[in-house]
């Protein structure tokens, strides 16, 4: 066994840095040119130049890897905030992988690898990241690009095919160079000829393969185009069907529930951190009902006041009626990528909202629509107090005719129903609201098995089926309240009360989408949240997370929280959040009556194996006498001497002769060492055992060699 190099003893392999630059920079240039982000290639170039200047490689440790990864993520996110990309440029792959963040992040990680000591995986990781960035850069719509910032980067839009081909060829050349063993560069003339032959053969084969592939594509171009369109349509259909748009601007009760929504009802659409269950999170509000459709024609929006912060903090604090001084009750919401909504989902009593957005518009009914919102930054809602069933408090003056609007052909049927529900007139609005809610819960049944009819869905529900989903319950109660004279509005959103098994956050699934009622109690002078749907139809927590779902969602939450912190400008908090989340995740994994003992048992077996292997190394090897072991130990000392003086460690898979043949052109010391090695092998591997006199003579020669060259 030979001594391993310590990182601090290794000098920077600048040849590797040059090859890494040859792999990274073409991909960085293509990505910068495609998305008009010149800073990406400049950052990569600056990082590689710094790596060339630094004389020593950095030690590869957990801390350095974590810091480097966070630094790469921070650079990618911060510059994305400073130079946003038009996401309409992205096609299928770019939309799925968020090219504007993932591509720079991978390039910065590749540059970071060039700072560390060379290991067997360095080249493979850099090449893989660069190839993936090229793939992402090619999946962009060129016709929508505008590149006024640097004219040099706009030339490629007319010659993209040529530049893409040159980029791929450069990648192949430098990857082939990187795949050659580093030792070949220090061999003699034979090794150099072998290296040239390998590279030349690979280039010839690559050119032949490229020409043959191009001709084959041209010959069957139409068939390839058809196949491409089939896959593209299938991929887009699959991807767009996985994007859940739950709250459109119009609710159509005539339509049955979408099969895509039904099949994906267990998909998690948002995660929320709060001390208690967030409860009802309202999204869109509708006020006018006609022909089975809810709309909000009178909705008007105004901009909410906000506080901005100096420095790198990107988040703004928008506030509304008392939100200038935030309370300690807060809910941090992180929508998933699969959930598409242009409105914020918040409790009705929220009065302060922290998010990365240019503006936040709010309607008189409490809808919140941000402008230029960075969705992956999430948002935080501040509440005056903990509440799971709060309604939006405005408008206090209910002069909007839409809030009491009832279709003309409904009045008779609604009045008959009210007469049956209220044999005696209620004392106040709150009693009327409670009695109507009780009426629906006791006389109607919740069901999602709804068929389309030619009659109005609400009248059909109230008079015929008496069975339906939450939208029909909410719609029917609103119209009855309005007929009675109580202003009411239709609200859609999510019920969020399912705690993750870790207990650190709550999740809301697609099946937790819900519709409910907000009614105005005139005697109390306030809006109240009303739930007319029976308990069986209120989407409370019912799903149970299995072990793997729990852990995969936990990892998503950790990444989502860290990305949100970086988006908001809280870089230190991102590091601490990752560290604390990792600690609690590990603790929760181990702190289990089944997993805990199993892990302890595995750890014990592993430690026992290590101790056993160590004891084996310390034991005398069977079949070797004391003289042979002494000879081996002396030759190991010589090996360590060569490693220390010439940085020429012997790889474990090479014999002594192969190791010596891999030396550069021999000088006096290496030539004499080769002679000593030959003498050692003659004594060590002959049939009879070495004598004490031979051992003593070899030790004297070895000592003389080390003294002679140890001073140089």
Topology overview:
Layout: H1 14-35, H2 38-53, H3 62-82, H4 92-97, H5 99-113, H6 122-138, H7 160-179, H8 189-219, H9 221-241, E1 244-245, E2 251-252, H10 259-263, E3 268-273, E4 279-286, E5 288-290, E6 293-295, E7 301-303, E8 305-307, E9 316-319, E10 329-335, E11 339-340, E12 352-355, E13 359-363, E14 368-371, E15 379-383, H11 411-421, H12 429-443, E16 445-446, H13 457-465, E17 467-468, H14 470-484, E18 488-496, E19 498-499, E20 506-509, E21 513-521, E22 526-530, H15 547-568, H16 571-590, H17 595-618, H18 626-646, H19 656-661, H20 668-684, H21 692-710
Parallel strand pairs: 1-11, 16-17
Antiparallel strand pairs: 2-6, 3-10, 3-20, 4-18, 5-6, 7-13, 8-9, 9-12, 10-15, 12-15, 13-14, 18-21, 19-20, 21-22
Helix pairs in contact: 1-2, 1-5, 1-6, 1-7, 2-5, 3-5, 5-6, 6-7, 7-8, 11-14, 12-14, 13-14, 15-16, 18-20, 18-21, 20-21
What does this structure look like?
The protein folds into 5 domains: 7-179, no CATH class; 259-383, no CATH class; 398-502 and 511-542, C8orf32 fold (Roll), CATH 3.10.620; 549-610, no CATH class; 626-710, no CATH class. 50% of the residues lie in helices and 13% in strands. An 8-stranded antiparallel sheet has the order 8-9-12-15-10-3-20-19, with helices on one face. The chain has a 4-stranded antiparallel sheet with strand order 4-18-21-22, with helices on one face. Helix 18 packs parallel to helix 21. The protein is elongated, with a radius of gyration of 36 Å. It starts with 13 loop residues before the first helix and ends with a helix.
